[in-house]
Amino acid sequence: MTRSSDSQGDTAADDVERGGGGENIAPTPYVLSEAPGPLSRAELVAVDAWWRAANYLSVGQIYLMGNPLLRTPLVAEDIKPRLLGHFGTVPGLNLVWAHANRVIRARGLNAVYVAGPGHGGPGPNACAWLENAYADLEPDIPRDLAGMGAFFHRFSFPGGVPSHCAPETPGSLNEGGELGYSLLHAYGAALDNPELVVFCVIGDGEAETGPLAGSWHANKFLNAGRDGAVVPILALNEYKIANPTILARMPKPELVELLRGYGYEPLIVSGNDPAPVHQAMATAMDACLDRIARFQRAAREDGDGTRPRWPMIVMHTPKGWTCPPVVDGHRVEGTFRAHQVPLPNARTNPVHRRVLELWLRSYRPEELFDGDGAPVGVLLEQVPELPMSLNPVANGGLLVRDLDLPDWREYCVDVPTPGAVEHEATRVLGSWLRDVTARNPHNFLTFAPDELVSNRLQDVLEVTGRDWQEEVGRFDVDLSTTGRVVEVLSEHMCEGLLEGYLLTGRHGVFSCYEAFIHIVDSMFNQHAKWLDASLRVPWRRKIPSLNYLLTSHVWRQDHNGFTHQDPGFLDVVANKSPDIVRVYLPPDANTLLSTYDHCLRSLHYANVVVAGKQPSPDWLSAEQAGLHCTRGLGIWEWACHRDDPGTTPDVVLGCAGDVPTLEALAAAAILRDRLPDLRVRFVNVVDLMRMLPADEHPHGLPDAEFDALFTTDRPVIFAFHGYPWLVHRLTYRRTNHHNLHVRGYKEKGTTTTPFDMVMLNDLDRFHLVIDVIDRVPGLRERAAGLRQEIVDARLIARRWTREHGADIPVVADWVWPDAAIPTPE
After folding, report:
1. PANTHER family under this entry (predicted)?
2. Which residues of 340-363 are buried (b: 16+ CB within 10 A; e: fewer)?
3. Cβ of 311: how many Cβ atoms within 10 Å?
């Protein structure tokens, strides 16, 4: 890089050095050198101008709240009082954007940009402003001097926009507040998008995360004939907040070997002199896109099904490239000190403020923006016809097509009387999902971490295979290069690929063992925050819902043991915005069908559905299931005892979840047989959010309706699928909360029988009967004999499991309305 003298330098403070070893060294404008490569001199000058303009706008966002084009010397009032943002990764992000625009224009590409490095928002924000995306989407931020001032002012400012890529960032489909998901979102966006190119920048700090480390394998699910392409760009700038990055310190041959082992052909772009780096990046971009075009032609025209070795770029440039080299005697450019705000005291320290002004002027803004503050012609000429910041793919709600869903009622099982038949609920759902898959061959995918068949969804494989681009062995089954099921033993990959697919306007389902969905707690959190924040961005459109199917759940993981028993994802979900989250606990196969039909029709929610895969009784007909799911909860009159609209119950027996429903019904059968004068009301909850008040959740039940169901003064014994305290959280404001007693999972688990599992946690039918006896006033004395019999029944049932390794027949063979209780032999 060749430095030149700065016309502003004569007024610099004495302690702002222009080179050498002074306490503060400001960057100086450089003369763009000559360098061989594919770019002509005019092209080189143009792409460098974009890079300088984007860098200027990025620095301005972090620091300035006034005087956006330095028409006067900077004063303290021009600087934000709180300097929030990260500059270190921004020059690399802007470099990639500049070169992506060149190839988009030259090749007529349909492209989007994913910025993985954390808090790199200033870069994509700046490029979006240059492309006039803000003026197009938000008229109060035009592409002129006033708009530039407003654009700077709102960055990381109260009431403004965050420092990372977020829903407020035009062209963004990746939430940059947490690291690790960029490459998965990129590949998810490319699936079923044959004409799309995704430029995905991966930070070298981000590359140390577990999700990103697994993400490299996502290339094994990309079909060159059916899908779009991803150009991964690994941005090596050597540092995180305070430490060097692992990949940047690996010897280059070792790094290349690692990436080749993942199935990529890496191209290296390295240096700190702009002209050679520009030429190297142009060469690499052209080589990547030439290879991609060749692979896609071979697949689409010649039927070549060989998995390509996809190209990628390794970009090794300095951290905080172009920022002040030295601040207060410490090296900044090229070190961890450039990660966030290189001049943290610019408002209060005149020397820092002077360095900041010299830094901004080093980009020569007078050459980049005209007298009105608008970008000059050389910048405007580089904006593609379809800019990445305005590509509808990155605002996926614009592209949503409703699914063609078969009538779920046609897949329902016949239920002549409650509990007369039993089915595996998820297997019944699988037959419906099979036809959903067949009728939506381009915008619906199913994701599962190697558990599709285990979770009883194997009927889907009758109409498609598992997506597989690798070698197929002689004993492999149901693998296909065009498969509509993505199975990979990484919950992170399933979640991230599905999120990318949803964010770009398509639909899908993620089926997972309940205990292991916790692996993606943080990913779910970020996606839920994206959904919530995008509701407040006027130009964002609603995207398809994130649909979970959690099965192999806590109550039927008796064979796998304690590690597989955890219903706590419901608690994680309940913490998120009520505008976004929905939780459903369908008690049987028909209610599961009705619930999932609703979920796949919905937009912009996170729908969590928990359902069992083991044979379980069916309680409701198709018509009853539809009505019950529409209400979200309700009285099952056939299960009540001496309860009618004109009778106040002595006790309410409530439940949510398939196994809790089974145990609550068995308890109700005992009560109606042994205590015939007791008035028992039976209430089943399928939509858990109905337990909230109406002013806390859109599905919340008004207090009057809640009180009508659960009464204002009678004991309520509630059998719950998850941790008991979640129900208390949801209902603490209800009139009768003091009478609510919840039974659920209380972290008692082991490898045992199904009924022993519920007994370990006091959720069993016998304990529910004991709870009723203990809590209904006057009943304990009157039913003392029954209580003792029930206590003995629990002991007998437990002893049986220990002696026989199975549940006692009176439990294992129970059918409604059997009221049998184990007795001593």
Report:
1. PHOSPHOKETOLASE-RELATED
2. bbbbebbbebbbbbbbbbbbbbbb
3. 22
User: Which residues, including other chains, have CB under 8 Å from residue 465's CB and lie 6 or more apart?
Assistant: 478, 479, 480, 482, 483, 484, 485
- CATH number for the 633-812 domain, one of 3.20.20.70, 3.90.870.10, 3.40.50.300, 3.40.50.920? 3.40.50.920
Q: Would you state the pLDDT for residue 15?
A: 60
Q: What percent of the chain has pLDDT over 70?
A: 97
For residues 728 and 785, what is the distance between their CA atoms, to the nearest angstrom?
Answer: 31
The whole-chain average pLDDT of the chain stands at 94
Calpha distance 268→233 (Å, rounded): 10
Sign of CA dihedral 532, 533, 536, 538: negative
Residue 381 pLDDT class (50, 70, 90 cuts): very high
Residue 166 token pair: 């977020």
To 10 degrees, the CA torsion angle through 136, 138, 142, 147? -150
Confidence of residue 428 (pLDDT cuts 50, 70, 90): very high
Strand boundaries in 542-629, DSSP class E: 546-551, 581-584, 606-610, 615-617
| Distant-in-sequence contacts of 722-726, Cβ < 8 A, 24+ apart | 722/554, 722/567, 722/568, 722/570, 722/571, 722/657, 723/567, 723/568, 723/570, 723/571, 726/570, 726/571, 726/574
**pLDDT tens-digit series, residues 186-221:** 999 999 999 999 999 999 999 999 999 999 999 999
Q: State how far Cα 65 lies from the chain centre.
A: 33
Can you tell me which residue has the tokens 């994913």? 114
C-beta separation of 446 from 455 below 8 A: no
| Whether pLDDT at 159 is above 90 | no
Amino acid at 204: D
User: What is the longest distance spanned by two Cα atoms in the chain?
Assistant: 103
pLDDT at position 644 is 56
pLDDT of residue 562: 85
Which string of DSSP letters, residue by residue, matches 370-407? -TTSPBPHHHHTTS-SS-GGG-GGGSGGGG--------
Cβ atoms 95, 269 nearer than 8 A: no
Q: What is the mean pLDDT of residues 362-382?
A: 97
Residue ranges of the chain that CATH labels 3.40.50.970:
2-384, 408-472+479-616
Per-residue pLDDT at 27 exceeds 70: yes
Judged against a pLDDT cut of 70, whether residue 113 lies above it is answered with: yes
The Cα–Cα gap between 582 and 576 comes to 10
Distance CA 203, CA 206 (A): 5
On whether the CB atoms of residues 794 and 821 are closer than 8 A, the answer is no
Sequential DSSP letters for 670-721: HHHHH-TT--EEEEEESBGGGGSBTTT-TTPBPHHHHHHHH-SSS-EEEEES
Q: Where in the chain is the domain with CATH 3.40.50.920?
A: 633-812
Q: What are phi and psi of 78, to 5 degrees?
A: -75, -15
Residue pair 85/341 in contact by the 8 Å Cβ criterion: yes
* pLDDT value of residue 118: 82
DSSP 199-223: EEEEETTGGGSHHHHHHGGGGGG--
Residue pair 526/247 in contact (Cβ under 8 Å)? The answer is no
Does position 3 have pLDDT exceeding 70, yes or no? no
C-alpha distance from residue 823 to each of 702, 789, 797, 800, 808 (Å): 45, 8, 9, 11, 11
What pLDDT score was predicted for residue 4? 33
Q: Would you identify the CATH topology of the domain 2-384?
A: Rossmann fold (3.40.50)
CA gap 409, 411 in Å, rounded? 5
User: Comparing C-alpha atoms, which of 553, 563, 637, 566 is closest to residue 592?
Assistant: 553
* Radius of gyration of the chain measured on its C-alpha atoms: 31
Residue 12 clears pLDDT 70, i.e. is over it: no
pLDDT at 124 over 60: yes
Please state the pTM of the whole predicted model: 0.95
Whether the predicted pLDDT of 10 surpasses 80? no
Q: Is the peptide bond before 158 cis (omega within 30 degrees of 0)?
A: no
